[in-house]
């Protein structure tokens, strides 16, 4: 069974309670309701671009949530209206020498890998622009919800770059190799409806007056996941993520190992009992 550490957050009635974030924090951890944690991106002056401080704080937020047994779903959202994440902070990047650029891009790649490796399901709520590294961040999440008016694109080739934080690997897994090449080669931006038709996002919704339609739909999706057996969900995520990296025979072996870890859980016994007694199961994540 996956070994989880002590809870990193304080929990109270209705959800996650964290210490008051320091003034000017670019990334905060919050909660809408019990079991759903939120990573809130708040760098308005730079449209949530991936600067050094922003990236450091994202790493800290992930570390805060990784071993918390009460967290069952994580939603990534922006507190900046009209933008999810605008990608790399090119003003910072301009001041780096070649070696520094290489080191920082490697750090961005590690960040996206850390997002992908969170043991619980993750959902990106894309209510505005998700460009370059911003789209790569969304691609590192398990699920994506976008407002129909949102704009997405791996636009690096328009800046003399190429996706360097996992986009060349994760985008083809969503939309297929041909479409991924077209989007990367052209640097084209697409809206939420186009992204949905390509399979880039799971859901698209019309934007509302508050500018948070994707976030609201992401919460609805998170609440569908919340009642399910936490260990079974985690093992399902692990089996999928590891299985797609190997041939089908190896993938089946990985699935078998994940299933074996779920067999001795109390939740599996509860699921069987609830079915027998014709009642909703009460899973506890053990």
UniProtKB/TrEMBL annotation:
Compartments, record wording: Mitochondrion
GO cellular component, one term: mitochondrion
Gene3D superfamilies: 2-enoyl-CoA Hydratase, Chain A, domain 1 (3.90.226.10), Lyase 2-enoyl-coa Hydratase, Chain A, domain 2 (1.10.12.10)
InterPro entries named in the record: ClpP/crotonase-like_dom_sf (IPR029045), Enoyl-CoA_hyd/isom_CS (IPR018376), Enoyl-CoA_hydra/iso (IPR001753), Enoyl-CoA_hydra_C (IPR014748)
Keywords linked to the UniProt accession: Acetylation, Lyase, Mitochondrion, Transit peptide
GO biological-process terms attached to the record: fatty acid beta-oxidation
One term of GO molecular function: RNA binding
Pfam families attached to this UniProt entry: ECH_1
SUPFAM superfamilies linked to this entry: ClpP/crotonase (SSF52096)
Family, similarity comment: Belongs to the enoyl-CoA hydratase/isomerase family.
PANTHER family registered for this protein in UniProt: ENOYL-COA HYDRATASE DOMAIN-CONTAINING PROTEIN 2, MITOCHONDRIAL, ENOYL-COA HYDRATASE-RELATED
Protein name, as recorded: Enoyl-CoA hydratase domain containing 2
């Amino acid at each position: 069974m996956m070994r989880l550490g002590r809870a990193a957050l304080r929990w109270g009635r209705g959800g996650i309670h964290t210490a008051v974030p320091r003034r000017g924090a670019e990334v905060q951890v919050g909660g809408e309701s019990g079991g759903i944690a939120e990573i809130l991106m708040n760098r308005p002056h730079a449209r949530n671009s991936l600067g050094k401080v922003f990236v450091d704080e994202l790493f800290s937020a992930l570390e805060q949530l990784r071993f918390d047994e009460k967290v069952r779903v994580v939603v990534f959202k922006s507190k900046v209206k009209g933008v999810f994440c605008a990608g790399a902070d090119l003003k910072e990047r301009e001041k780096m020498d070649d070696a520094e650029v290489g080191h920082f891009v490697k750090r961005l790649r590690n960040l996206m890998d850390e997002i992908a490796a969170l043991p619980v399901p993750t959902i990106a709520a894309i209510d505005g622009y998700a460009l370059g590294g911003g789209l790569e961040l969304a691609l590192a999440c398990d699920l994506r919800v976008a407002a129909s008016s949102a704009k997405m694109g791996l636009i690096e080739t328009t800046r003399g770059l190429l996706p360097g934080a996992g986009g060349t690997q994760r985008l083809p897994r969503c939309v297929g190799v041909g479409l991924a090449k077209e989007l990367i080669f052209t640097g084209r931006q697409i809206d939420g409806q186009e992204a949905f038709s390509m399979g880039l996002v799971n859901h698209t919704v019309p934007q509302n007056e508050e500018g948070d339609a994707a976030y609201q739909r992401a919460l609805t999706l998170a609440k569908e996941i919340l009642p399910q057996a936490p260990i079974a969900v985690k093992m399902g995520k692990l089996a999928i993520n590891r299985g797609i990296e190997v041939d089908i025979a190896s993938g089946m072996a990985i699935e078998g190992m994940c299933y074996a870890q779920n067999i001795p859980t109390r939740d599996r016994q509860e699921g069987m009992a609830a079915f027998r007694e014709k009642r909703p199961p009460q899973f506890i994540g053990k």
